[in-house]
């Protein structure tokens, strides 16, 4: 079966046909590094990793670029609100540069723990200021910009198809925005370059043709960097569904206006949100802020979360609850035990028998990345008694090239006795409600390279 993907631009499933035979250019919007990524953010990166692995599975040579937004940008996509990086710097009493460095590192650690393949190119916004200025100059020459209140704006009324990705109804929507910024000529216009910062303590600023000190608007960096590394037109651009109405819409506008080439990107793929049981979106602060470390502290392995995400199609909202994640954990555990058992098997392989399942698996993942069905195929293999142990092992490892559960590296982790002793001590402290001691012991265990989580039976220890 051909690889088919749901394209947000056309609202249809389409056969994937790359611009250059055998190659796929992929751009994925990366994190804004002012805080830890929460597990809702991480769902997007797991989906994008899956897409990349499916492209590789289909024989494409993938060139993947991911940006790191380390320039301060505002709490709202619509050029209003407060500067996220600056808020973080004040909160943590560090410079914005230190904040960016710290959270970039922590993001990359999360990616590794989730077995996400790193992009070929990590591109930092602050390393690409000249490219962004150049892009604005091109837009300026072509008459797509105006200056108001000292800032450079993109004039959306100069494009006849602005908002096509989101199918925006231009009059009705977001009228409120023009009120937020009296300088805008049209409600959807957006800032390309800020010179008049509302924030006195802006640390990140650069010289530009529009003034001594300023900084780029958020949408600009993705256009500039994607075109630098992937060309004026490329195959696939991804992100969370929240990027459709503003960020990706504006990326398209400024890129197509600058090059005159359409479409800028052939396929746009977006994943749905992770939602909490009460139907809320994951928040960036407060009790609903769940990070990968939160899960590890509760005794989950990061790949339990990956398995959990694979269980729901990326275009469906994923309902998160600890009970549901526990379900994924026990299934992953069962899978790991089976694979470890099969690893020992010395039977002969039967490639013809394997072929049927390989085709089925390919059909599933090529059907707009249908991972729930692909997982079902994997479990069918494990249950099929006509297959030898070796056949099962080979197939599951092969499938794992796409699923990314790191099954090849599995070995039974023996937990050292001193760690078990500490965990027992901690359990006793908890029983006595001595939370301080329990916390200290947890910290001790973490320092030794293990995580301990609380379960109904007592505790669970894992190596990290
Ligand atoms: Zn972007």
Explain the overall architecture.
- The protein folds into three domains: 4-271, Rossmann fold, CATH 3.40.50.620; 275-409, Four Helix Bundle (Hemerythrin (Met), subunit A) (Up-down Bundle); 417-463.
- Helix 4 crosses helix 7, helix 11 (351-366) runs antiparallel to helix 12 (371-383) and helix 12 (371-383) runs antiparallel to helix 13.
- 42% of the residues are buried.
- 44% of the residues lie in helices and 17% in strands.
- It has helices spanning 39-57, 84-92, 96-113, 129-141, 176-180, 218-230, 244-259, 292-297, 302-310, 322-343, 351-366, 371-383, 389-403, 417-431, 435-447; strands at 4-7, 12-15, 23-28, 61-68, 121-124, 145-148, 151-154, 190-194, 206-208, 211-216, 234-240, 265-271, 274-276, 318-320, 450-455, 458-463.
- It is α/β, with parallel strands linked by helices and 464 residues long.
- The longest helix has 22 residues, at 322-343.
- Strand 11 (234-240), helix 7 (244-259) and strand 12 form a beta-alpha-beta unit.
- The strands form five sheets. A five-stranded parallel β-sheet has the order 5-4-3-11-12, with helices on both faces. Strands 6-7-8-10-9 form a five-stranded antiparallel β-sheet. The protein has a two-stranded antiparallel sheet with strand order 1-2.
- It binds zinc ion.
- Zinc ion binds next to helix 7.
